[in-house]
Amino acid sequence: SRFYKDARMDYTSTVVERYQRAGLVIFGKTASPEFGGTPTTESLLFGETCNPWDISVSAGGSSGGSAAAVAAGILPLANGTDGGGSIRIPASCCGLFGMKPSRGRVPSGPKALSSILSVIHAVSRSVRDSAALLDASGGPEPGQTTIAPAPRGSYLDAVARAPKGLRIGLISTPLTHSPVDPECVQATANAARLCESLGHDVQEINLPVDPREFFASTRIIMGAGTVMRVSDREQQLGRKVTENDLEPIIWQRYQSSRGYTAEQLEGAQLGVETAARQMALLQQDYDILLSPTLATPPVKLGKLSLNQDNATYEKEAISASAFTMLYNATGQPAMSVPLHWTPGGLPVGVMFAGRYGEEGVLFQLAGQLEQASPWFDKIAPL
C-alpha cells in the first residue's frame, strides 16, 4: 500500500511473539495487495506477484507473496491472513496446503485492525508443518472476546491419526450460481472419489444460505474494514487520504463505504450470524463439507487488475472466490488441499470445511489425503 509505505509498528503482534518462542526464524516480508482486500496480489507500489508454476498467471491473494515464496522453495511455510479466502486462494493457485482456522483460534492482538471475517495462519508445503504451527500459535490472548473451543489434543498428532467413516457433503454450485471451470469440477469429483475410496460417505448437498443477504452483509463488513484502516493511517500521518494514496479499486471501495450507518453495520452482523447458524444446522448431518476452492484455475495476471471499475471488479472477483468467502462469515475452519493439476501444469485446490472449532478433524483428513495422493514432491518449474 502506498498509503502505508514506510509504516513501522511500535509493537510486536501476539502471534509473531508465539512464532518466535516456537523457534521460527523470520527473515523477510512478502507481497500482499492493499489491505489484503483482493484475491490476486498486484499493486502499483510493487507490481505483480507471479506464480512459480507459470509466471504469466496470478499467485492468488491476498497472501500471494507468501504462497509464491513457499511454492518457489524459498521456505517451507509462510504466514498469511484469511478474510475472504486469502490463505486458501493462494494455496490453491500455488499447489500448497492452506488452512484457515476457526474464528478466535489464533489471536490478532494486541491491536487488531482486522474484521470478524479475518483469521491468521499460514500456507505450507506439508500438512504436518501447518499443524505444528497452529499448535504453537493457537489459543486466546488476554482480552480476546471471541475464543474458539479448546482443541481435543495436538493438531500435529491428529495428522497421523486417520479418520474413519466421515460424512462428507459435496457442494458443486457456489452461492453466486456462476459457472465453475471444468478443471475445478473435475478436481472436486476426483477428491470425492478419493474420499470414498478411503471409507468416507460423500453425498451431494445444497447450501441453505441466502446469497443476496450473505453478499450484502460481507460487502458492508469488508467496506467498513477498509474505512477503519484508512482512518487509522490518517491519524498516524496527521493528514487525510487522497485518491493517489490508494489503489483505484480500494479508493472506490473506501468512497462507497464511508457512509454506512450503524443500522447497516448491525444488519450486516446479523446477516453473518444468520449464515453461521444455517451452516451449523447443516453440519449436524455432515462432518465435512467438500467443494472447489476456487471456481477457476489461476487467472492470468491483469485479469483482476485493481485499475478498473469497482462493480466490474467485484463481480469477477466474487465469482472466482465465492466458495471461500462463506466460511469467513460462519467462522468455520476450512482448508485448501492440492489434489489436482491441469493438463497445462497449473495447480487446482480442493476445499474441505469442518464444524466450528474442529480443525483437528480437518487435519486428520488432510493427513490421510496427503498419504493417499502425495503432493510434496511436486516442484514448481520456476
- How many extended strands? 12
**What is the string of SSEs from the N terminus onward?**
HEEEEHEHEEHHEHEHHHEHEEH
Kindly state the mean pLDDT as a whole number? 95
Shape: globular
CATH architectural arrangement: Alpha-Beta Complex
CATH class membership: Alpha Beta
CATH superfamily: Amidase signature (AS) domain
Biggest β-sheet: strands ordered side by side in the sheet: 5-7-6-11-12-10-8-9
Give the low-pLDDT segments: none
Largest β-sheet summary:
8 strands, mixed
**What number of domains?**
1
Give the N-to-C terminal Cα separation: 27 Å
Beta-strand percentage range: 5-15%
Rg over CA atoms: 19 Å
Q: What proportion of the residues is helical, as a percent range?
A: 25-40%
- CATH fold call: Amidase signature (AS) enzymes
Q: Number of DSSP helices?
A: 11
What structural category characterises the helix and strand content?
alpha+beta
Word description of this protein:
- The chain is globular.
- The chain is α+β, with helices and mostly antiparallel strands and 382 residues long.
- The chain has a single domain (14-372), classed as Amidase signature (AS) domain (Amidase signature (AS) enzymes, Alpha-Beta Complex).
- The model has no long low-confidence stretch (mean pLDDT 95).
- Helix 2 (64-71) packs parallel to helix 3.
- It is built from 11 helices and 12 strands.
- 39% of the residues lie in helices and 15% in strands.
Structural descriptors:
alpha+beta; two-stranded antiparallel sheet; 12 strands; Amidase signature (AS) enzymes; 382 residues
